[in-house]
Amino acid sequence: MNILNSIHNMDVTTFYWLMARKHRQLLTRASRVISMSADGPLYVVLALAAWSLGFETWAYIIMGGFALERVLYLILKRSFKRNRPADILDDFTSFIRPSDKFSFPSGHTSGAFFMAYCLSEWFPELYLSFYSWSAMVAMSRIFLGVHFPTDTAMGALLGTTCAMVSFGVLT
Fold first, then answer.
1. 135-138 CB contacts, 8 Å cutoff, 24+ apart
2. pLDDT digits 0-9 by tens, 54-86
3. What is the pTM of this model?
4. Closest to 27 in 3D by CA, of 144, 147, 148, 153
5. What Gene Ontology cellular-component terms does the record carry (predicted)?
């Protein structure tokens, strides 16, 4: 249990360091837009677009991978029940209202890294853009005050792993 306390303390210290950045207001405004770009319904639209354009395998990979990701995400959220920064840090209020109660792992980050992996497989020349976007989504969730850094790190791992499994099974 001591190692979990050490990780939590490091997480809180890093979180406060990020919140103390000189241009935090600008980062917060940009984070709202970046975070919204990773909202789940957009991935459904992407899967439907792939399907309608004749890329059925792509649609199956997106749908199957997200189904796996969401199941694992919900299991992890309900198992760990880690409170969000605003719920445990004194004198801190997040900049947005989170969609659920717990913070670990970050679902926005998980979805973004899932999509970055998939899109990088299909358009390898653009991989740097896709992974830069997904990293910005992860950082945006922290700057908005709804996740600790390890929440987003686990989200990145979860999304990437689910994409790898989806590609391994469906291609």
1. 136/34, 137/34, 137/35, 137/37, 137/38, 137/108, 137/109, 137/112, 138/106, 138/108, 138/109, 138/112, 138/113
2. 999 999 999 999 999 999 999 999 999 988 888
3. 0.90
4. 144
5. plasma membrane
